[in-house]
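User: Second chain of the day. Same drill as before.
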Amino acid sequence: MHGKIKTLFGIYKKHGRTAFLNVAQDYSCHVKDTVEATVSEMESRWYDAAHTVTEAEKMVEDYNNGLCSLSQTESMSEIDMVQAM
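Assistant: Same format as last time:
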């Protein structure tokens, strides 16, 4: 991966609305119709019972570590491009 994504909005900008909202459902039960409302919900909700990480932080962390389905799709497309060369 070339650079680290720092925010949910960065993931949205890179992959688009539909892909972002679909994957956000893996991290939150509070996905809304708009990206802005979803980001707001995820930034204000705890992902874990110990209240150490928000849903937003968890999704960004997983994305940067290759554990999010969007980051896996990206890495597969990079492999496809290398194989095509």
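The two ends are 19 Å apart (CA to CA).

User: Great, on to the next one.
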